[in-house]
Amino acid sequence: MPASPSPAPADDAYLDPHIETMPPETLARLQEQRVLGLIGKAYERAPLIRTAWDAAGVHPSQIRSLADYFAKAPFIDKDAIRRHRDAHLDPVGGLQICDDGVLDRIGFTSGTTGDPTAVPQGRVSPLDMQLCRDFWQIGARPGDFMAEMMFTFRGGQTSLACFDKIGLTPIGMAHSPAEIPFLVEISKQFRPTLLFMLSSPMIIGLEKYFEETGTDPRDVFASYKGAVFGGEPLSPRFKALVASWGMELFEFTTCGDVIGAMECHMHDGMHAWGDLVLIENLDDNNNPVPDGEIGELVVTALADPWAPLIRFRTEDLVRVERSRCGCGRTHPRFWPLGRKGDETLVQGKSVLPRDIQRIVEQHAETRTCLFQIIRPQREMEILRLRIGYDSTKLASTAEELSSRLIAVLAEGLSVPVHVELVLYEELLKLGPPQKIPRVTKQ
Ligand SMILES: [Zn+2]
């Protein structure tokens, strides 16, 4: 949470005020209109959608309202896309509805839980529209510079159209701790407004850099109105650390690969733009979950004339809130809680990586918060963790650290815990640079 409540929105607080503050009833009508306009075309042109709807015995002509859609439309998931892609040698998984030759670029999902799938996009994609609104609310304005170090969507996420719309000039660099001296240099020279984006490894790298060089982070980041953080849930320690550098962090997550979703200055959930994506929060029996309770995020792309996802099960566990945000925006917000597949049941009790994160990061030796749940199956009798530690920060011995972690984890999670300690450099080698798999079979 920010130290003090955000001030009332200024006149130019919204990039698209008529959309961002649209009354919920108007937004629902717009969503219905877009869904009804979409499904016929998708059924005609997207082989995966036609297959799914035929298998469910549903035809778009039977859907005349959002209520019909929620009651009858079949789901698709990432496995269905992969299966169609591999069986039909169709690189975009049977989702394309546009003519060939109109795609602007092909992005890819980050591939955290399997091989990445394609995200085809045209010019001024919904992702661009989402990013523009969210960059604007952070405070980016025409003529500003943006330090851009992307790691996800593999280059498919931002486009020149995005920068044209709000007049931002990006300064690109790799998403790697090795680029930190360059980031520091360009921050002093160009004084950017926005940093897009930080991840846990980048924050660890910056902390180390500032400690070793004596550079004043408040001077480096003096011009920034905010930095976007993504890759995994933001830990309380990292949030406080970056705040101590004078930088406000805005958490970013994907909204089922349709668009991204980002916090506003209220830091009260991720805004999911309802004109671009229809979100549902469903239980295992496909029933809607009331606001405030945990369910699975299901998304339908509403402004994607290229390859829209239609009732796509994201496997992301979320809480959703549909009341107006303190920032004045009326669209739904959600809180990502973890991947459905990452949930482990230890003696029947649910444990998610973020529950472990809060405890592990409080110890100097493990403050980088690199750990894995070792789990051959979802239900376990004991929680087995592999935790990376920094040998230069050991207060006593590795054995003492192990005993200490086991004690605090068992108390904090109320389940029995086994800990395997490894040097964090070794653990980092197990994954892509921005994150390691939080759950592993061995
Ligand atoms: Zn808000």
Q: Say which molecules are bound, naming each kind only once.
A: zinc ion
Rg over CA atoms, rounded to whole Å, is 22 Å
Please give the CATH architecture of the domain at 343-440.
Answer: 2-Layer Sandwich
* Structural class designation: alpha/beta
Q: How much of the sequence is in beta strands?
A: 15-25%
Mean pLDDT: 90
Shape by Cα distribution = globular
Number of helices: 14
Number of strands: 21
Q: What is the level 1 CATH name of the domain at 343-440?
A: Alpha Beta
User: Uncertain regions: pLDDT < 50 for 5+ in a row?
Assistant: 1-8
Helix content estimate: 25-40%
Please summarize the sheet with the most strands: 12 strands, mixed
Amino- and carboxy-terminal Cα gap = 37 Å
CATH level 3 topology of the domain at 343-440? GMP Synthetase, Chain A, domain 3
CATH superfamily of the domain at 343-440: ANL, C-terminal domain
How do the strands and helices of this protein lay out in sequence?
Layout: H1 17-20, H2 24-45, H3 47-56, H4 66-72, E1 76-77, H5 78-88, E2 105-108, E3 118-121, H6 126-138, E4 145-148, H7 160-166, E5 169-172, H8 180-190, E6 194-198, H9 200-213, H10 217-220, E7 226-229, H11 236-244, E8 249-255, E9 259-263, E10 270-271, E11 277-282, E12 295-301, E13 312-321, E14 333-339, E15 344-346, E16 349-351, H12 353-360, E17 371-374, E18 379-380, E19 383-389, H13 398-413, E20 417-423, H14 424-428, E21 439-440
Parallel strand pairs: 1-13, 4-5, 4-6, 6-7, 7-8, 15-18, 17-21, 19-20
Antiparallel strand pairs: 2-3, 8-9, 9-10, 10-14, 11-12, 12-13, 13-14, 15-16, 17-19
Helix pairs in contact: 2-3, 6-7, 12-13
The protein binds zinc ion.
